[in-house]
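Entry 12.
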Amino acid sequence: MTNLVMTWKEWAQADAMALSQGVVNGEFSPRELAQQAREAIRALNPSLDAAREVFDDAVDDPLIDGMNPLGAFKGVPFLMKDLGPTMKGRLQEMGTRFMQGKRSNADSFLTQKIRAAGLNIIGRTSTPEFGVCSSAENPAICITRNPWDTAYSSCGSSAGSTVLVAAGAVPMAHATDGGGSIRIPAGFNGNIGMKCSRGVFSIAPALSDLTGLVSTQGCISRTVRDTAAWIDHCRGGAPGEFMPFWQPETCYSDLIKADPPRLRIALSTRWGPYAAEAGLCQELERSAKHLQDLGHHIDWALPDVDYEMAFEAQTFCYISNFAQVISGHLKARQLKEPPADYIEPINRLIWETGKDFSYSDRFAMQEVFNTTARRFGAFFESWDIILTPITAQETPLIGQRDLLTTSTETDVYAWFHRLWKAFAFTPLSNLCGIPAISMPMAQQTSGLPFGIQAQAKQANDGLLLQLAAQIERSLAGRWNQGQKPKVHVQNLGR
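Predicted 3D structure (tokens):
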């Protein structure tokens, strides 16, 4: 076993910015940090099944892939979700047997930004097939478990990243969000999960935000300052972006040092046909009381939106987007249809349903997106933030197949309806392109953590981070009531 430079308790208490400062102070090196992270992953992964691979060469030589040691994070170890941005020479298998052995020939633009920020990418983390469903849970690939109670799902699709951050293996990891895939697992595992506005992170050289419409990049962390610093140093558009990218007047790392002004905060527990369970409504109200005690104005209010039509358009978007993703992979392999042995049943059903959608269908969807986004925008003329539970239902147990892409459901629309019934409060921020953050303020009846979600108007990302930082200070940094998961580095001994 590698000699460790910190006790596991010290490791668990240090966020990414603290580790980077330790490197500056000469307390430890990027190589030593990477070695300790590798030891943590090796010890935890048999229980959690969250890491797909550790890059031993990047652990032993943090500069091997072009990490900038002078960047803000000074060589802090970092994990990439096995989906989205590519890494030159590394596997990217997207949670599917169909892509096993697939290596990338170049770093994506965001990967370059991550390396320039001084983060040492030492491995990749689990995700469901193509990031489609709610849990990385296919026995042929992996079953990623919740570190608070391994009988429960971690949810996803940023499953492995969330779990390894929650369990203390690394302070921060990459994630993506197309309908809640950062915020939902963050909420169920006790982390900070921020989905930024449209026009913040580039996915070059792949689709632009304008063509992808709903999916964006981000990170999972345990402190607000880590998330703020990650956004500050990894945001920005690649040359030739098809849509404008924007920058805030003040960097978020500075902005979060001050409390926000008194905010007008709306509460909601029902969006159209989908409503939160009673216990989660009570947790929202308890969290709202905390915000009221901080001086904010709280009341019940809801954007004037045709929610059924919005969810219908969101469903169409997912089916058409994922059908084209799968079609692209089939074309590259000169296949006419998804092979049953290598692509999961719901994803085959999505492809069959969406592969021939017309531009007229897509245009009608975009009209609903436009109307919905305008009405959310009008709502935020009167309210600064809307606060909701992160989901409408509690964390599912491992093996609850009705929410998985291994489901035997034959009606793709019925399958999506079940997703919305469980995860109602996250997808529409993707539709509208507005920012949203999950904060680990609450608890489920199972004892698992539960996230409270705040959403704001487009480009008001900084306000959400300010509010989260104010809450964090009011809790003396003790998210999750100061509790730690059962599977955690602090239980490893020294």
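Annotation: The chain has a mean pLDDT of 96. Residues 307-332 form the longest helix (26 residues).
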